[in-house]
Amino acid sequence: MGVVAALLIGAVALASVALRQHADLFYTPGLIAEKGHPDAGKRVRVGGWVQTGSLEYGEAADMAFLIEDNSGETVAVSYTGIAPDLFREGEGVVATGRFDEAGNFTAESILAKHDENYEPRELKKAGQASS
To answer: What is its main location (predicted)?
Structure first.
């Protein structure tokens, strides 16, 4: 019985360490302004809306934009890669990445969010053609 209990405690401890290492914390611009930037180099997610007029494209696949929320605060994001089809100004976004020592956020991935009324462009075109 003691061996089983020791194995169970070991498995729980191992699982909690693994989950803690792979869990990304979620921040909004308002939360960052209130509590400060997360530790530099720690992987986090920042979410909100892409501020209208903030999207800038650089060389190759580089882009920069601001994430805003209802607090009036923003987080500047830089990203290199291909953005999802739904990514655009004024729409919801979740960026996963890291802050550096200076507080700059570099995204490793971007997810575009949509509401429950989302309909892919292909289906909209098909619906218009059949009406």
So the answer is: membrane
Residues of the chain where predicted confidence (pLDDT) is lower than 50 = 19, 22, 130-131
Is residue 79 within 8 A of residue 64, CB to CB? The reply is yes
Q: In the chain, what are the domains?
A: 24-115 (2.40.50.140)
* 88: CB partners within 8 A, 6+ apart: 50, 55, 112
The structure's pTM equals 0.71
